[in-house]
Amino acid sequence: MRRLAIVLTAAAAAIALLTPALADPPSPGDPGTPGENRPEASVSVDSGPDGVTIYIAVSETSPGSSSDSSSGSTTGGSGWSCTADVMNIGHATREWFEQEAPLHPGELPWIVRCDNGYFAIVWLPVDTQPGDIEIVVVQGDSLDPATVAAELLDHVPVPNIVIGVNPATGLVAVPSWFWIEGYDGAPIVASDTLGDVTVEVEITPTGYRWSFGDGATLATTSLGQPYPQESDIRHTYEQSSLRVGGAFAVTVEITFSARYRVNGGPWEPLDPITRAFTAAYPVQQLQSILTGQ
Amino acid sequence: MRKGLFRGFGIAVTSALFVVACNGGDGGETRESPTPAATRTATPEASPTATPPIEQEVSEAYLRYWDTYAEALLNLDPGLAEAAASGEELQRIREEIQTLRSQGVALRVVVEHNSVVLEASENSGVVFDEIVNNSFYVDPETKEPPVGSGSGEILRDTFYFEKIDGRWVVVRSTRQR
After folding, report:
1. Is the pTM of this model over 0.80?
2. CA-CA distance, A228 to B146, in Å (whole number)?
3. For residue A179, which of A108, A224, A284, B59 is within the disulfide window of CB 3.0 to 4.6 Å?
4. Helices (DSSP H) in chain A: which residue ranges?
5. Which of chain A's residues have a Cβ under 8 Å away from the Cβ of B108?
6. Which residues 96-155 of B are in CB contact (within 8 Å) with A?
7. At what angle do helices B87-103 and B53-75 cross, to 10 degrees?
8. A162-284 CATH
């Protein structure tokens, strides 16, 4: 069993997710629900290229928070520690699995166990590895969407950017042109829904900082232009890359502004984030050769 | 009623632990469904394996819990649940019944279970159940109407069992949204 990273947050009063709404008294014949006063936990899964986040928003009367000494807390629930493991599909669980699997194509059931006794079942993509999973436990009757947004920010699917360069092998004293491939600079959006609350996070690039591996840097707001166009991101090396192991490490660090909104409401700012991408770039020194003619 | 056929494991068994807590009389009892949904069809490759005794005990205790729980909600008598619930769960049932009383109704429990024993040891067990709920309110005195329109909602509940004085009881439960 693998211990997973936990983020525990005492949520500020924000959006009530777990408080049942008041309703008219029921009449005979109306639909009813047994166990309406059971302690609830809202469980949501956010799956992206960077991994899987399992959000658990628990009410204050969830198991362990009031009586289970293993949680070490009676109010905030600090000390929740949860793990997720693929459910063992044995004989005892086979029938259940056969019923549920068609409802979750391409997914397998995982059991989330918390050390205060809380259990949940979530369905995750079949290729999910334990190391890909982060469990976020939010304690309280309310869920702070900023907390969800901050977690979501870590999983925004930034494209796999490639650094383009021409010539493919650089030459000393000859300008090299650089550009970004695989991303057009458009805003990137990720969202997650917990209960009735949908949190959207949007990131937008605001600048690109290039490091050419020889100590030179360049800050731009441009993605550059792919060859054969003449890129505005260029650098002229003064030495070959022989002394640094055969290639310079060219890095572009992209700064994204970030913001989030709840249920399509107004955007609220988040701290900017950066993502860096690196490529190895060999640079050679041209040698003059005298032929003796 | 849901039926599923999972082909990835080469198994063609399509059955569920299917129990309907429905109107079997004044008690609102829980009983195993006699409907075709409970029919089990096994192909030769489905190897019949006996459920371990403890898991079987927990599973049976779970059905008993629903029997008594349904009786308690229909008759607004928390004492009926004492045979299958204890601690936090029993207190929760008392509060639920108190709420029903204050609303002037009782609840006839009509549910389909698809449960699984997640853990079972000598003295504790955990059952997860995806419940199709079609329960409906009735008059607390006449128990009318005999049938109602349930919502068909799916409830994902987890039940925590402990063996107390040689008897499996539900000590708490949670609902996963």
Report:
1. no
2. 79
3. A224
4. 91-100, 145-153
5. 32
6. 96, 99, 103-105, 107-109, 111, 114-119, 126, 128, 130, 133-139, 144-145, 148-151, 153, 155
7. 20
8. 2.60.40.10
Domains in chain B, number: 1
Q: Quick one: residue B61, left, alpha or beta (phi over 0 = left, psi -120 to 50 = alpha)?
A: alpha
- What mean pLDDT is predicted for residues A207-215? 96
B positions 2-31 inside 8 Å of A (CB)? 2-6, 8-9, 11, 13-17
The ipTM (two decimal places) reads: 0.74
Q: How confident is the model at residue A44 (pLDDT cuts 50, 70, 90)?
A: confident
Residue B145, preceding bond cis, omega within 30 degrees?
A: yes
Q: Output the six-digit token pair for A243.
A: 């002394």
Give the three-state DSSP class for B38.
helix
Structural domain that includes position B75: 19-176
Report domain extents, chain A: 6-143, 162-284
In sequence order, which residues have a C-beta less than 8 Å from that of residue A242 and are 6 or more positions away?
A: A284, A285
- Backbone phi, psi, residue B116, to 5°: -145, 135
Q: Which of A36, A43, A98 to mutate to test the interface with B (most CBs of B within 10 A)?
A: A98
Whether the CB-CB separation of A197 and A143 falls below 8 Å is answered with: yes
Q: How confident is the model at residue B168 (pLDDT cuts 50, 70, 90)?
A: very high
Greater pLDDT, A89 or B39: A89
Rounded Cα gap, residues B174 and A63, in angstroms? 8
